Structure formats: C-alpha cells, structure tokens
Amino acid sequence: MDYLIDIVLLGLLMITGFAIVRMRSLLAVAMLTSIYSLLSASLFVALDAVDVALTEAAIGAGISTILMLATIALTSDEEKAPRHTPLLPLIVVTATGAALIYGTLDMPHHGDPDAPVHHHVAPTYLHDTPGEIGVPNVVTSVLASYRGYDTLGEVTVILTAGAGVLALLGYRTRRLNSRGPGNRQLVVLRVIAKLFFPLILLFALYVLFHGDYGPGGGFQAGVIFATGFILYALAFGLGNAQRVIPHRLLRIMAAVGVLIYAGVGIESMLLGGKFLEYRVLADDPVTGQHLGIMLIELGVGITVTAVVLIIYYGFVSRLHARDI
Amino acid sequence: MPELLGHYNYWIVIVLMMTGFYTVIARPNLIKKVIGLFIFQTSVFIFFISMAKVDGGTAPIIEAGISVYSNPLPHVLILTAIVVSLATTALGLALVVRIREAYGTINEDDIHVQDEAD
To answer: Cβ A3–B22 below 8 Å, yes or no?
Structure first.
C-alpha cells in the first residue's frame, strides 16, 4: 500500500511542476510553488524523513512563498512571452533527461535494504547513537553532534545570507507607518493572528527543545518562531512588528546565535576536549552530549529566527518605502 | 514496490529536475528562473530522500522493539540543504528586486536590449 501513496504524490508533483512552467501569472505560480513544496513535504513523511518534512513545510511552503509574493509585489506579476522559440532548450532538456534516466538503470531499486548507501557510516550512527549520545532521534544526533562542524558551517551560511540581503535591500525605518494596513477589513485576520501568535511561539519552543526525542530542532524551530512574527507583521503592519522585535535587536541576535554555537566548541576545548566535543561539558558523557546539543540547537534557532526576520523586514520595508 | 516500478521515484525526480532546468534556460522572466531553480533543488531533495528509504523501515527515531530504520544520513544532508535553499532563494530574489530597480524590468530579453544600447 505504501508505494501507492508514493506514486500518487509524485504524480501530483509532476502535474504541479508542469503547471508552474506553463502559467503566465506569477502570483498563481507562487501559490503553485507553495503547493509543490507542501506535496514534497508530504512525500518526505511517506518516505520516513519526518525531520526533513517539517523543514520543507516550514521553509519551502512557508517562508519561500512569502518572499516570492513580496518580490512580485515589488516587481510585476505578469510574465511576457519569450521571444525565441523553445526548441533548443527542449532538445537540451530532453537529451540531459534521457542521459540521466539511462544512468538510473544501474541504480539499486528504491527501498532496497542492500543498496550501498545503507552500508557505510549509516549503520554505525544508528547503532552507536543510543549509547554514545543518548537521544532517540538519530537525525538530531548526526546533525548536532557527529556532524557538528557541518552544522556550524550551515549556520554561518544563513548568517551570510542575512548579511547579503541586508546589503542588497537595506532597511529603511523612516517611512514605516506604524498603523499598518488599517481599516476594518482586517478584523478577522487580526483576531485570529492575536489568537495564534502565542500558540505559534509555544509550538516553536516545543519543536526546539523536543528535537532530541521527536522530529524537530533548531532550524525548524527558528523558522516557525519567525513565522509567528511574520503573521503579526502581516496583520498589524511592519511598524508595530518593529516595536515588538526591533531590527537592531535582530542584527545582534543573528550574530549571537552563531557565537553561542562556536562558544560551545571553544568551551569544550577549554575543558580539555576537542572542538565541539560535548561529552566533556558535564561529568557524565551522555549528560554532556545532551547539554551540548541543547545549547547549539538554541544557537541555531536564534540565528535562523533573526535572519528570516531580517530578510522579511528587508523586502517589506522596501515595499513600504516605495508605496508612500 | 513492484519490480517494474523499482526506479519510478528516480524517473519522476528526473522529469521534475528537467522541468526546473527548462524553466531556467527557456523563460526570460527572472522570478520564473528563481522558481525553476527551486523546483530543480526540491527534485534533488526527493532524490536523496528516496535513496534513504528502506523497505519496511520506519523514521530514524530509536524506539524499543523496532529494528529496521531508514537511513538517517541523507536526511541530515537534505535538512541542511533545505536551509541553504532558503538562503539562496532569498538572495536571488533580493537580486531580482535590485535588477528591477536598475533596469525597470525583470525580463531578461529587455535587459539584454538595454545593455546593448549602452
């Protein structure tokens, strides 16, 4: 039965993909892209990748769509027809696709337990995690502990992206109207937003601190936390959101998150271990691992929240600056 | 999964990948190009996650009484790749906004015309 879900979801993904290419209205395309992400998140659940599904749903279907809509608002939502015939691109795409499909014929079948990918380091991680790290979620243990270096690099990439968007779009405070998109039409949205705002933040904290035991962790929690503030900004205007969480604070937070992460690494060196070797952080190695993972996930969460909001503020403040 | 469909996931992934690739090379609209890249990226995510699946396995969260788990390593790689995709999409879209401000259009053909006129 499992593979039926797989076949249907992949079929839907393909239809959505084709619709995205054919549609001319960019607004519709942005919504279809969100659906495309949500479908792939569902597929990830069917394929046992629950952590990935949570991330894709929060980032792909949530934040990316908001950014695309903001870009469309800043530019235009009409796509002009291309001037040249699509013949050459079609030939290139068909040839590449045919070569790739020929390449898959040698691959092991989907779901094959004897595939080479399952026989290198993965069994070690699955076998050693309960004893060495003591957290049930193996994805978290690999992400935060075994491959802690990679994740530190990842957080730095996020910080760099935030700095890049800040450099490109800037941030203009002067003309923000604190009253936001006024009038009575938004009453329902505002009541709902007020109701959901604390729940979203609470859920983000749950995802952050329960990441050891279930799907979740710093990346997902950071994005969900930022979504709460974005919802608030959508309902009450950027000026009010800026009062709740000012841009200056966000810039500091983005750096503080990375600092906490690297600080845990330095601290474990000072205590006689290697960089990011958490087991020296407490008397008991497993408690040390727990503490280390908790701290770096917190750092990741802070940076991701701050950067997502910096990016959002960047796009929307430009929109305000242009409108007024 | 039946024998005949052993590579079904991979084939659909390639179709999606080529859909994204086609959008990037054939469509002159810059936002459409960024969306094409996004589709391409997501298809690669599906490819990795499909490889991680083990028949009869479950999500890699250790639980008493379960012995078969899907491979957690591709999950970790793709989790971080999704976060990087947010970074690239945001930067790409910010560039599109600035290009629109500089040229007054986000159509690649029009931008070429303006560049050649200079």
So the answer is: no
Q: Which of A158, A172, A160, A122 is nearest to A142 (CA)?
A: A122
Residues of chain A positioned with their CB less than 8 A from the CB of B61: 50, 136-139, 213-215
Q: Are B49 and A49 a contacting pair at CB < 8 A?
A: yes
Residue of A nearest to B36 (CA): A21
**Alpha-carbon torsion (B79, B80, B86, B89), positive or negative:** negative
Please tell me the distance in Å from A128's CA to the nearest CA on chain B. 11
Show me where the domains of chain B are located. Answer: 3-54+67-117
CATH tag, B3-54+67-117: 1.10.287.3510
pLDDT digits (tens, 9 = 90+) for A134-143: 888 999 888 8
Q: Residue A68: its chain B contacts at CB < 8 A?
A: 31, 34-35, 89, 93
Q: For residue A56, give the chain B residue with the closest CA.
A: B82
Q: Quote the tokens at residue B85.
A: 């995709």
> For residues B96, A221, A140 and B79, what is the CA-based torsion angle, rounded to 10 degrees?
-20
CA A49, A302, A226, A319 dihedral sign is negative
Average pLDDT per block of 10 residues along chain B, 118 residues long: 76 94 92 94 94 88 87 91 91 94 89 88
SS3 at position A25: strand
Q: How far lies A27's CA from each of A65, A70, B35, in Å?
A: 10, 10, 12
Q: How far is CA A244 from CA A238, A287, B18, in A?
A: 10, 36, 44
- In this complex, the residue of B19, B63, B76 whose CB is nearest that of residue A136 is B63
pLDDT exceeds cutoff 80 at A190:
yes
pTM of the predicted protein model: 0.91
Q: What is the DSSP secondary structure assignment for residue B63, as one 8-state letter?
A: -
* Residue whose token pair is 């659906």: A35
